[in-house]
TrEMBL record:
UniProt pathway annotation: Amino-acid biosynthesis; L-histidine biosynthesis; L-histidine from 5-phospho-alpha-D-ribose 1-diphosphate: step 1/9
Subunit structure: Heteromultimer composed of HisG and HisZ subunits.
SUPFAM superfamilies from the UniProt entry: Class II aaRS and biotin synthetases
Protein name per UniProt: ATP phosphoribosyltransferase regulatory subunit
Note in the entry: This function is generally fulfilled by the C-terminal part of HisG, which is missing in some bacteria such as this one.
Cellular-component GO terms for this entry: cytoplasm
Amino acid sequence: MRRVSVVAGEHPVAPAPVRPAVALPVGVRDVLPDEWEQREHLRSRLTRLLAAWGYRGVELPALEYADPAHPQSQQAFKLIDSGGQVLALRSEYTTALGRLVQTHFPTGPFPLRLQYGGRLWLRTQTSELGRLREFSQVGAELVGVTGVRADAELLALADAALREVGVQAQLEVGFPGFVDATLEDTGLPAQARDALHDAIDRKSGADLDLLAERAGLGHSTTRILHTLTELYGGPEVLDEADTLARGGRAREAVEHLRAVHEAARAAGLELLFDLGVSRRYGYYTGLTFRAYAPGLNQPVLGGGRYALPGGLPGAGFALGLERLASALPAGIPPQPETVLALDFAAAAAARATGLRAELAWTDDGDELRRVSQARGFRRWVQGEGLQDVTPPDLTDNPEATA
């Protein structure tokens, strides 16, 4: 029996629950071959597309210095190195990419078009990320330029990326500054505005009424805030937003969105607008956008415009590979045939023709037949001439994958 030691004057401490030796921490998972194939297929298609648009690859370290000002500071895994420095595992890419630009490209040449990909880690589980604490992203950043053309380029690129991997998703564009400007016109203090901003983002009319009543807002102002939660749809939404825009900032936001819409439409895009959207991270300074696929409650893509320290403008987006995979039909993309090679010469010859080849590990024909049935090997080959060797009793396995 396990004993619990008790020090005089202290309460006994229950032992930690015993976990299976093979268990994984909550929020992480193994990736098996079929899923790995699908994920690598997505990654490869995306990186090739981004490169075709002029976005060059960079690689960012998984470890960075912990910074209380980091937008994900509360959710990041932290550790201490042998020198006593507090480090954090990478929890999002935009901040890390900003550091890279400041370090290696402080004076450009601009615009910089960069792409990245890799793993991210979070200490906490969130429904927004499907309860995963380790996940993969591919993303693109356009740094050093701003304006309608830059925003339209990123929207067009995001749409092209989704089409490239076969995900049917709709881009939804927001502008958190429009909500900010409308709330500033109420004259409320920042804390009250933040609470209203959150209620508008969640489109919670009940919370909005309660907060407006506490703040002493009149009926007409409360009606305007309710209207913000309803500003969702096609370009006609911008006309309605015009009627709410009282100050210069709000009007500028609407005019910018109109211009972006025209540029995007010229590129063949049809956008939806959600002008009640709030910030996900505090660093977004302008247009934001997300893409939703049918059947998924969370976006498969998200991004927006931000400012790097020093005021350098940037904008970008990231695609979650796990989300993209879940938005696609089950199964892996078509792969080259895999043959069983009985010798090294046959294996090399098969691979040279674009086939995949696995080497026979034994001369035992019965064992090779058994594995061929289980793995779906239709052909055995030998010699440089790729001579087919058909086992006399190797029959098709209807459940095997060709």
